[in-house]
Amino acid sequence: MPSFTLPISEIYKIESEKVYFMKVNIESNATLIGEMRESVGMCINFFVLDEANMKNWLNNRTFTAYAKAQTVGKYNFTFTTDHDGTYYFVFDNREFYVHAPCSDKVIIFKLKRQE
Question: Kind of pairing, strands 85-92 and 74-80?
């Protein structure tokens, strides 16, 4: 799983039925502004999770997300971290949530600290 530092401006190809994760170490009380855009359609499910909630999500347990968008083509978000640690940005291109085949996607993702 790749680690990133802020600011982030990346383009990813996410294959059908795949999940892409990225992680960022962020200090407490940091307010972040982000944008996720999908090239075509609305099949990506996007989550921002801390370490504990990432483990819950991976094990199909109840989790709480700092930001969450399901089956959207574009999503702008702002959140403030509540502790120092690793935060995970999850791009889920699986049929699990939409009950329809998802094609390969190109995602544009941006994340920065609020000035």
Answer: unpaired
Spell out the domain ranges in the chain.
3-113
Model confidence at 24: pLDDT above 90: yes
Q: What is the pTM of this model?
A: 0.90
| C-alpha torsion angle, residues 96, 72, 77, 54 (rounded to 10) | 10
User: What is residue 22's predicted lDDT score, i.e. its pLDDT?
Assistant: 94
Q: From the centroid of its chain, how far is CA 75?
A: 10
CATH homologous superfamily of 3-113? GOLD domain (2.60.120.680)
Mean of per-residue pLDDT scores for the chain: 90
